[in-house]
């Protein structure tokens, strides 16, 4: 080993002139005189050799053969007298090699190694170089340098080295099989994936890894494909050394000889366990409800479609049951979403026990469930199942120590009498379920033609409502609120009405709930707020505006992420003072996501907007929110006012509400006041405001303008020029 790290091969048998002549005799080649005292070289060996040969004395060329000239692109006379170091590509390397050669030859050895040399045109290549000393007739020594192009050999060697690196460093397992399909070679990834060391599998058949999940016929088809058609790839289940089964993606490629015979097989495989787990998880998420573990809407529709195909083919009957929990919303609002989720899980577990293995029960969304009964033998079977489901739903469920009772409303459709397609059956079952709710809840209803007509009418109404705003079909009414103590107009509630071009006046009972269900209430609510503020600004400019006006806000509208921004923007663009605007909320709104509600209310109050609770006393919420939430006014629902003072219970409730509100420094508005006796009673209880037909029905914009103008003129105080 030299200082530059190269390994030298030394042959300790110098070629003397006598040995050289002996070799010529063995080859029976004629000798020629080289001249100039050189050793006598064979003309055929020197001139016709397949390698480049140079005679070198004292490090310079004395003679070269034709192959040398061909190899280095020099004419034979071009190099005579030049140093051999000029052939080396790396600077200074030639001088070092000459020194190494001399040292080796002086000790009776010779030299052989590979170097990067340079041709006359500057191209570089790998060359195998061997040097031997030969004795001159004068007793001195010359050197025979033999050059052989090693580029091809070096390229093959590099390719083999690279292939070996790829083979060992591949993340995929690789198995080389012989022609009899026995294992010849494996890489390290094979051992990592399977747990087998190479010495444990060499010479064995890969069937030792079989999991048993694929049949013998599978493997016969695989090998037949490889032998007849070429490479095969696909999924295979195999067994690790520890017995664990795992999936792998495998390719098998035959290696054929020049005659077409298969010499080897190359198997490349990767462990796809993680990929399969991800696929299974995605498949589960796409088809099952994560909360209840029941099939979701998508899988349910797919199974219903398959069930209809089977029912048509077999001539059987199928029933679809739609289930909606009756009081789930109240429980969810009161106890929170976590308790609501626990209730849904408990209900799903009980409902699952009410159906057969051949049936499907799914969570359709929210608190809605659906059941496919297939097959059934008449509507009576469906009604029996519905009765059992209602019994289960009527039981109390223990949710964190609270006994929750929900009940359910069930709609039933039967194939083929109530529909022949998936869409028809689902739509009609939904309509029947709503009919069950209308009939008092906790019951079941079969679909009827009347329901179909009602569902069609609802669909048409929804379509028309979508265009009501842009077609200017919506309008505002205003109902005055009277100050009980002073008898003057102190406020105005804004009410939305729909004047349909063909239907005429559409009752709010018909379209407000529909707008809530479809989400259109958000756009309608924004239109109402903006239009009301614009009209109030007009009244202010006319000097007849009441101190404030109240606008109802829906739950969806209040929950919108841009609600605060919308209110602020409308007040700014209409130049209405925030203190003139009162937003009316229902109790149910306050019970959803309490922290967010408090934050929103505080932002509104910081702006100066007033907050009132509409229909107070009809909800199921805790009264503690009156202390926690920044509220200004309570509105007593008309259901408590209509029978006072004759109904003792209503009297007690109204008294309690007014007393509690005043204790909390809240104002009170009594709705639905229709006679003087009610006014007198409320005045005695110090109720702040009254609203109802006794004082004024809801008025159109023009009517209300005239009303306010008259009110202003008759209630004008001398000297103050203000409405008291």
Give an account of the 3D structure.
This protein is of the alpha+beta class and 724 residues long. It has 4 domains: 134 residues, 2-Layer Sandwich (Beta-Lactamase), CATH 3.30.450.20; 107 residues, Beta-Lactamase, CATH 3.30.450.20; 160 residues, Reverse transcriptase/Diguanylate cyclase domain (Alpha-Beta Plaits), CATH 3.30.70; 249 residues, EAL domain (TIM Barrel, Alpha-Beta Barrel). 42% of the residues lie in helices and 24% in strands. It contains 26 helices and 27 strands. It has an 8-stranded mixed beta barrel with strand order 18-19-21-22-23-24-25-26, surrounded by 4 helices. The chain has a 5-stranded antiparallel beta sheet with strand order 2-1-5-4-3, sandwiched between helices. Strands 7-6-10-9-8 form a 5-stranded antiparallel beta sheet, sandwiched between helices. Strand 16, helix 14 and strand 17 form a beta-alpha-beta unit. Helix 15 crosses helix 16 and helix 17 runs parallel beside helix 19. It is elongated, with a radius of gyration of 49 Å. The N and C termini lie far apart (114 Å).
- The number of distinct β-strands equals 27
Oligomer: single chain
Estimate the mean pLDDT confidence. Answer: 84
- Give the strand order of the largest sheet, numbering strands 1, 2, ... along the chain: 18-19-21-22-23-24-25-26
Determine the structural class based on helices, strands and strand pairing: alpha+beta
What is the CATH topology assignment of the largest domain? TIM Barrel
Quick one: overall form? elongated
């Amino acid at each position: 080993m030299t200082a530059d790290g190269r390994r030298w091969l030394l042959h300790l048998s110098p070629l003397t002139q006598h040995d050289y002549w002996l070799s010529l005799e063995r080859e029976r080649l004629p000798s020629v005189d080289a001249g100039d005292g050189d050793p006598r070289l064979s003309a055929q060996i020197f001139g016709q050799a397949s390698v480049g040969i140079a005679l070198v004395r004292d490090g310079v060329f004395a003679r070269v053969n034709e192959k040398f000239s061909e190899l280095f692109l020099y004419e034979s006379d071009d190099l005579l007298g030049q140093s051999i170091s000029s052939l080396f590509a790396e600077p200074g390397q030639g001088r070092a090699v000459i020194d190494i050669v001399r040292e080796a030859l002086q000790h009776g050895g010779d030299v052989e190694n590979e170097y990067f040399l340079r041709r006359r045109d500057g191209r570089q290549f790998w060359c195998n170089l061997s040097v031997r000393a030969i004795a001159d007739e004068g007793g001195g020594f010359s050197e025979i340098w033999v050059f052989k192009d090693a580029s091809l050999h070096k390229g093959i060697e590099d390719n083999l080295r690279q292939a070996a690196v790829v083979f060992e460093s591949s993340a995929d397992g690789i198995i080389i099989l012989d022609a009899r399909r026995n294992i010849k070679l494996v890489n390290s990834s094979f051992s990592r994936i399977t747990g087998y060391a190479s010495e444990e599998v060499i010479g064995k058949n890969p069937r030792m890894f079989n999991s048993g999940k694929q049949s013998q016929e599978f493997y016969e088809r695989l090998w037949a494909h490889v032998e007849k058609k070429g490479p095969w790839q696909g999924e295979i289940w195999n067994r690790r050394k520890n017995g664990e089964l795992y999936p792998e993606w495998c390719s098998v490629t035959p290696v054929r000889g020049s005659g077409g015979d298969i010499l080897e097989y190359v198997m490349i495989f990767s462990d796809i366990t993680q990929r399969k787990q991800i696929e299974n998880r995605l498949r589960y998420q796409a088809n099952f409800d994560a909360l209840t573990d029941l099939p979701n809407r998508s899988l349910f529709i797919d199974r219903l479609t398959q069930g209809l195909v089977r029912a048509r083919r077999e001539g059987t009957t199928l029933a679809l049951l739609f289930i909606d929990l009756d009081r789930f919303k109240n429980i969810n609002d009161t106890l929170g979403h976590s308790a609501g989720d626990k209730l849904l899980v408990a209900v799903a577990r009980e409902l699952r026990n009410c159906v057969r293995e051949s049936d499907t029960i799914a969570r359709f969304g929210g608190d809605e469930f659906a059941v496919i009964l297939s097959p059934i033998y008449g509507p009576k079977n469906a009604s029996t199942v519905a009765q059992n489901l209602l019994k289960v739903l009527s039981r109390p469920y223990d949710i964190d120590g609270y006994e929750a009772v929900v009940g359910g409303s069930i709609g039933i459709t039967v194939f083929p009498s109530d529909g022949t397609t998936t869409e028809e059956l689902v739509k009609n079952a939904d309509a029947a379920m709503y009919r069950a709710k209308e009939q008092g809840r906790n019951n079941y209803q079969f679909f009827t033609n009347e329901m179909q007509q009602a569902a069609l009418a609802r669909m048409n109404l929804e379509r028309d409502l979508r265009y009501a705003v842009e077609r200017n079909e919506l309008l505002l009414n205003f109902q005055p609120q009277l100050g009980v103590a002073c008898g003057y107009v102190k406020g105005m509630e804004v009410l939305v009405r729909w004047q349909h071009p063909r239907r005429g006046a559409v009752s709010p009972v018909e379209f407000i709930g529909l707008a809530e269900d479809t989400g259109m209430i958000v756009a309608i609510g924004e239109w109402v707020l903006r239009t009301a503020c614009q009209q109030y600004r007009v009244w202010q400019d006319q000097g007849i505006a009441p101190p404030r006006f109240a606008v109802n806000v829906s739950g969806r509208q209040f929950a919108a992420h841009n609600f605060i921004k919308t209110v602020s923007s409308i007040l700014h663009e209409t130049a209405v003072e925030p203190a003139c605007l009162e937003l009316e909320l229902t109790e149910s709104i306050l019970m959803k996501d309490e922290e967010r509600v408090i934050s929103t209310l505080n932002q509104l109050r910081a702006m100066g907007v007033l907050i009132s609770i509409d229909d107070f006393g009809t909800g199921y919420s805790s009264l503690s929110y009156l202390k926690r939430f920044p509220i200004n006014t309570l509105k007593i629902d008309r259901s408590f006012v209509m029978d006072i003072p004759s109904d003792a219970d209503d009297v007690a409730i109204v008294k309690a509400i007014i007393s509690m509100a005043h204790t909390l420094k809240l104002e009170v508005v009594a709705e639905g006041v229709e006679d003087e006796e009610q006014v007198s009673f409320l005045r005695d209880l110090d109720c702040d405001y009254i609203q109802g037909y006794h004082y004024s029905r809801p008025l159109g914009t023009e009517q209300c303008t005239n009303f306010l103008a008259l009110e202003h003129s008759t209630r004008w105080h001398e000297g103050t020029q203000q409405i008291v």
